[in-house]
Design a protein that fits this description.
Blueprint (H helix, E strand, L loop, with lengths): L1 H25 L8 H11 L3 H14 L4 H14 L2 H12 L6 H17 L3 H13 L4 H15 L2 H15 L4 H17 L3 H14 L4 H13 L3 H14 L8 H10 L3 H14 L3 H15 L1 H14 L3 H12 L4 H19 L4 E3 L5 E2 L15 E3 L7
Antiparallel strand pairs: 1-2, 1-3
Length: about 375
């Protein structure tokens, strides 16, 4: 309720400006302020916003020359979810033949936002495109168009609009544009059209050489074609692009090396990465290889050494797995209890966190579901993460 009151304050201020304007224009010292203006203010102070809205609408009906009041009310209705009322207000403004071009274009921009919130995306798109073509509110209109094309998953138009926005506002859009190319590539891959996906992946890397997603797609496509050396090159490129995403390539890299019969090479690569980065995923992968080829005791020794350097719940959980298999029934029951406790601590922990808004999830999204930013979700860090 208090949020709505704050939204109504500009309306009250605009209404007060209207009164002062009358006094100035007509030169009346004893100008009589309409009673319902004070009623509206009284409703605001008494936290009765619905009644206040009705009052200020009546004030507009008395003299509708105050465009700012109309715009403030329209925005208020849209934020409250009353989009139809917002649309009527903005359409009435645009219909005035005497409205100055600057205010008319502002009303058109607000009407476009009304249409977008109402789900009338085609009508919103037409308005914003007209504003862009007339070089009026161009940057704001381009941002709105970008939102529409993302919502419609029209990636071709999104790419063109992002390029326009980069030119109009000198805003770096390479990261976003590369994601759009990746979206197109994934559509082609879902349709089993690797031939169409390949140039889109390369275009993404050309636009943004640090696009991890494009490297992952390139590696997946090369693996499908059984070009394992190419897949390894693509997956290993991720370390240079953003080592935070190494966790996404370790398993596919292991598969590639195993199919090539190069387990020792993969082990050496893992050890090299562990010297550079503290990662529980890398450590557990190497521990599993040590266990397979050197035995459980060597794997346990390796885990204990790593945990001294970088404490981790996942590491403790794996160490308990090793211990459970080698202990007596009584000790085993105790270890199983500890194992259950660590599992409960880990089972609902988010694996990824958005660096922009803090949204957490167990699944990697390239566009944050919360703030809609691209390429901001990273593996979580700390004792219960990486």
């Amino acid at each position: 309720m208090s949020y709505l009151l704050w939204l109504l304050l500009p309306v009250a201020a605009a209404s007060g400006w209207l009164v002062a304007w009358y006094q100035k224009q007509q030169g009346l010292r004893n100008f009589l302020v309409p009673d319902y203006y004070f009623k509206g203010l009284n409703y605001l102070l008494n936290e009765e916003p619905d009644k206040a809205i009705d009052v200020f609408i009546k004030l507009i009906d008395v003299d509708s020359d105050t465009v700012e009041t109309h715009l403030a009310l329209g925005i208020l209705f849209r934020r409250r979810g009353e989009v139809n009322r917002a649309i009527r207000i903005h359409q009435n403004l645009i219909a005035r033949t005497s409205l100055p071009p600057q205010q008319r274009n502002l009303a058109r921009f607000e009407l476009g936002q009304d249409f977008r919130h109402a789900g009338l995306l085609d009508r919103a798109e037409d308005l914003f495109q007209d504003l862009v073509a007339s070089n009026t509110h161009q940057v704001l209109a381009l941002r709105q168009l970008l939102e529409i094309y993302q919502q419609e998953q029209d990636w071709e138009k999104a790419i063109g609009t992002a390029q326009q926005l980069a030119s109009a506002d000198n805003e770096p859009m390479q990261t976003v544009i590369a994601q759009y190319y990746c979206e197109q590539a994934e559509v082609s891959l879902r349709q089993s059209d690797g031939y169409a996906a390949q140039p889109l992946i390369q275009q993404a890397l050309k636009v943004d050489p640090n696009c991890v997603r494009a490297s992952l797609l390139e590696g997946q496509l090369a693996f499908q074609k059984r070009n394992l050396d190419h897949a390894i090159d693509a997956f290993q490129r991720v370390e240079r692009q953003d080592p935070d995403y190494l966790t996404e390539v370790i398993e596919p890299l292991q598969t590639c090396y195993q199919e090539l019969g190069q387990v020792n090479e993969f082990t050496d690569y893992l050890r090299l990465l562990l010297e550079r980065y503290d990662s529980i995923t890398l450590m557990l992968m190497l521990a599993k290889i040590i266990r397979q080829y050197e035995g459980e005791q060597q794997a346990a020794n390796f885990i204990v050494k790593q945990l001294h350097q970088s404490p981790s719940l996942r590491g403790i959980d794996y160490l308990l797995d090793l211990a459970v298999e080698k202990t007596s029934s009584i000790s085993r029951d105790h270890l199983l209890l500890l194992k259950d406790m660590t599992r409960q601590l880990l089972i609902n922990k988010p694996a990824y966190k958005c660096n922009h808004c803090g949204f957490t999830t167990r699944k990697l999204h390239w566009q944050c579901p919360s703030c809609k930013q691209w390429n901001t979700l990273k593996p979580t860090q700390g004792i219960d993460g990486e």
